[in-house]
Amino acid sequence: MPDDLTLATHICRGNFKSTFLFSGGYEPVATYLAQLNYDRFFLEYDSDRAGDLAPIKNIWNNRSNVSIVLGLVTSKSGKLEKKEALIKRINEATELVPLKNLALSTQCGFASTEEGNVLTPEDQWNKIKLVVDTAKQVWG
């Protein structure tokens, strides 16, 4: 692989018409994920069904050059998260992984299937703006 190629994976739990298929934390698969040759892990953390943040430490400890992308902003509803709550969650993650190895995103895409999710284009842009504004505040 070229040196400038970034390999990323998204651990999806389903995203059809604002529904999901799976629940549970990443603990059972964290050791396995840490062994995979990815540079970046996009992990869903938009609700309690994703479990706690503890498994990100396991992934990072085994490969300290990886980035953990925290999918804290849901793409399943138009309700806008509070920036302060996102920052608080990111700060919790920094107790496990250095800030330079963390990133922020939506939990999944806005239209993983042609049916999309139950939110408007305006909702989607508001969420993208929230991610960008929060990232600027946290990472500068």
Automatic annotation (TrEMBL):
GO terms for molecular function: 5-methyltetrahydropteroyltriglutamate-homocysteine S-methyltransferase activity; zinc ion binding. One of its GO terms (biological process) is methionine biosynthetic process. Pfam families: Meth_synt_2. Keywords: Methyltransferase, Transferase. The keyword Methyltransferase applies. Residues 3-118 form the Cobalamin-independent methionine synthase MetE C-terminal/archaeal domain. It comes from the Bacteria. The keyword Methyltransferase applies. InterPro entries: Met_Synth_C/arc, UROD/MetE-like_sf. This is 5-methyltetrahydrofolate--homocysteine methyltransferase.
